[in-house]
Amino acid sequence: MKRNLTIVATLAAALAAGASLALGQVYPNRPHGGWNGIPFWTEPCSYQQVFAAAQFGSEPILVRSLSFAPDSFYHGEDYIITGLVVRLGYTDKAPGGLSSNLPSNVRGSLTEVLNAPSFHGIVDAGGPDHFSMTLQFTSPFCYEPANGNLLVQIDLASNLLGIAISTTAGLPDSSRAWNSPIFGNSTDPIAARMMFETTACRVGPTLQLTGSCPGAMTISWSNATPRSQMGIAFARATGAYRVPGGPCAGTELGLGSSQLQLVNVINSGGGSGSVNGNAGPGACGGYVQLVVVDGSPCTTSNVVQIP
Prior knowledge:
Strand 12 (174-180) and strand 13 (184-188) form a beta hairpin. By secondary structure, the protein is an all-beta fold. 0% of the residues lie in helices and 48% in strands. Strands 4, 6, 7, 9, 10, 12 and 13 form a 7-stranded antiparallel beta sheet that branches.
């Protein structure tokens, strides 16, 4: 189904939290092969790593954090990473097939799970299986292996220390690509060893956003409860806003309260569909989420940033 929408609209209704790591699993599940400074060196870096879906089984998993095992060179010293942003999503590229043109590796759009202007920690090095450097997500990501390979993107502006992390020969399970002033723009079959903290996640609606901002955009969804009213919510930032009243009272969004507004109310149709429209300049860089009126609390989708 298709309707027109405008991303920037008035609020039509009330739509409207480095913790220690729980037990997790290391991906790719391969032994330590060496130490490497990508992406956590002192220079800006954009980093992507693909993980083959077959490693994760068939059931959806909620990814709560990623952890890395640092080298002992700076053990006990402070590090401050500025401009740290972590995003997760899907890719059609297989391990070994990533391009150094990083945007071309993304299918649809990535979901921001952590945005830390200044991320502080202390290097705690205890060997290649000591995963002490934890990026705890503010918005956990529900990954569905049936939807394709997982893509992790890490961006940073600078780091006080150059931290090398445990890596392995990633193929056939994983590989990486990066853009960096010091390391260049390249790819290789190496993979950072990452510990995933996960739990099972309830499968809800999946949101994808395509197009450009400002300009024509398409919001697409799948796995929504059929024949239900569904709101498209917009906010300037992610967060954990709890809807205070109405049919979705008590529902926790993945959006914050800044400029929070209900863009449109549509019907979910058969559980999948799309809406087309135009995004104005004020919407660019903001975030959208679907809220399906199908119970108490209401079902919510993943949060997607408007490019």
